[in-house]
Amino acid sequence: xxxxxxTIIREHVFKMIYQYELLGDSYNTVPKTYWLSEEENNKNxxxxxxxxxxxxxxxxxxxxxxxxxxxxxxxxxxxIGIIEKCILRAALYELLNTKTPIYAINNDYGQIAKNYTDDxxxxxxxxxxxAVEEEEKVKNK
Length: 141
Fold this sequence. Notes:
It is built from 7 helices and no strands.
């Protein structure tokens, strides 16, 4: 099955955030170095992925703070893995800063979680996204 345009962008953005976390590079250098090892012929995908990544990286702390109080059952922010944090940052940025439908965010980032971790993590990611969305609905009433 052929991936959709936004799905391709989301997977690249996730990998860019992961590279940023793992290597500790400046967020300005990641869009340059990331594409050296990735094949992508669609310039629109590259441009949109770069823009989304930079916005997420600039708001990293704000995005992390959105869900710290949503963790349950003895979980702390420090116990969450890098992959999960990267997925949550991207998903929550889109949730709060775009008009992307929640089902698209849940589907794509849930699938990324399944591809790179497992089904339990995908459920965890979807639960956090739903909790943040609910809180935002209450704030905006």
